[in-house]
Write a structure and sequence with these properties.
single chain; alpha/beta; 6-stranded mixed beta sheet; 5-stranded mixed beta sheet; 23% strand; globular; HemC; hydroxymethylbilane synthase activity; EC 2.5.1.61; porphyrin biosynthesis; Porphobilinogen_deaminase_C_sf
Length: 361
């Protein structure tokens, strides 16, 4: 049976407050992200007592194997979702890019917060300061834990070599600075910004160099779908523009991921006042074979229509009960249509070969 446990705390003055437990990974970046969410909730709900529960995930423990060899998504979410299922926490803060496009039964994304810069950043070894990926010497080694980045950058910068690097941000920067194994490493700009390390960014990679991962730069709050009070509480943190962009991106990925493991399909999105543009691509393992297309859809809503989305409705795992449904539906359809367009042009074959080659490595 399902039992919902609600905890309360009494302070020294005898005032009783509800206790909300927030699950997070233990890394410094994860804690910074979770603390920022907790601060927002505390401002909105000053009478609620928030407790942060740190956990170590499988992805945090396995540091000697490439992510592509052990599965890239649930590695950083499974333990957190298990705690959520067991009522050990009431909500979980994730980097949206870590969350699969299909969530386990009973869970939903109750809030997608305003996106930080979603692009990737180049961090140079101190001896290479002033250079860029274009100007680094031939055969310079670039560190990245992402097949997505490596596939695109191999094609864009064929004079460079790419090598896997694992660990949290602190660990990877230490490996870069204290050894001569890497001329530079590629990291998410959003993580560097949140850590206060903007000064380490030597170059931001635009979409013409490297398209970002689905959902990159956005934080998500995962909750139990049956907890309507928690869902209502966190839903005010939804950023409408980010929600629409990420629904389109996640729909694009889910369609392709249903056919094959797809860390080599990626995209970027642009939202204007009335239209959403989505560019998506698939790449072979070495970047030599690729497909890229762009589509758009109208997301203008009729302001005369007051609509409340059925809270039971999820779109690629996202419940946005305070946003118009038609715009969400259009965003989801855009991602699906773009994926189908790429599939009609041979994307499945590229992805299948890429997976076979990766498995054989």
């Amino acid at each position: 049976c399902n039992v919902l446990l609600v905890f309360f705390q009494q302070n020294a003055n005898g005032k009783v407050s509800r206790v909300i437990r927030i699950g997070t990974r233990k890394s410094q970046l994860a804690r910074i992200q979770t603390d920022s969410v907790a601060e927002k909730l505390k401002r909105l709900y000053p009478d609620v007592h928030l407790e942060i529960v740190g956990m170590t995930t499988t992805g945090d423990k396995i540091l000697d194997t490439a992510l592509s060899k052990i599965g890239e998504k649930s590695l950083f979410t499974k333990e957190l979702e298990t705690a959520l299922e067991r009522n050990e926490v009431d909500l979980v803060v994730h980097s949206l890019k870590d969350l699969p496009t299909t969530l386990p039964p009973g869970f939903t994304i109750g809030a997608v917060l305003k996106r930080e810069n979603p692009h990737d950043a180049v961090v140079l070894h101190p001896k290479n300061m002033g250079k860029s990926l274009d100007t680094l010497p031939d055969k310079s080694v670039i560190g990245t834990s992402s097949l997505r980045r490596a596939a695109q950058l191999k094609k864009r910068f064929p004079h460079l070599e790419f090598k896997d690097i694992r660990g949290n941000l602190n660990t990877r920067l230490k490996k870069l600075d204290e050894k001569d194994d890497f001329a530079a490493i590629i990291l998410a700009a959003a993580g560097l910004r949140r850590m206060g390390w903007d000064s380490r960014v030597s170059q931001i990679l635009g979409p013409e160099d490297c398209m970002y991962a689905v959902g990159q730069g956005a934080l998500a709050i995962e909750v139990r779908a049956r907890d309507e009070d928690i869902l209502e509480m966190v839903s005010v943190l939804h950023d409408p523009d980010t929600v629409l962009r990420c629904i389109a991106e996640r729909a694009f990925l889910r369609r392709l991921a249903s056919l094959t493991l797809s860390p080599r399909c990626f995209c970027y999105s642009v939202l204007s006042s009335v239209s959403l543009y989505l560019t998506g691509a698939v790449y072979s393992l070495d970047g030599s074979d690729s497909l890229k297309e762009t589509m758009q859809t109208s997301i203008a809503s009729d302001n005369k229509v007051e609509e409340r989305v059925d809270e039971r409705v999820q779109r690629v795992g996202v419940t946005a009960n305070n946003m118009p449904g038609p715009a969400q539906d259009a965003s989801e359809k855009l991602g699906l249509d773009l994926a189908n367009l790429l599939l009609s042009k041979g994307a499945k074959e590229i992805l299948t070969v890429a997976r076979q080659l990766n498995d054989a490595r």
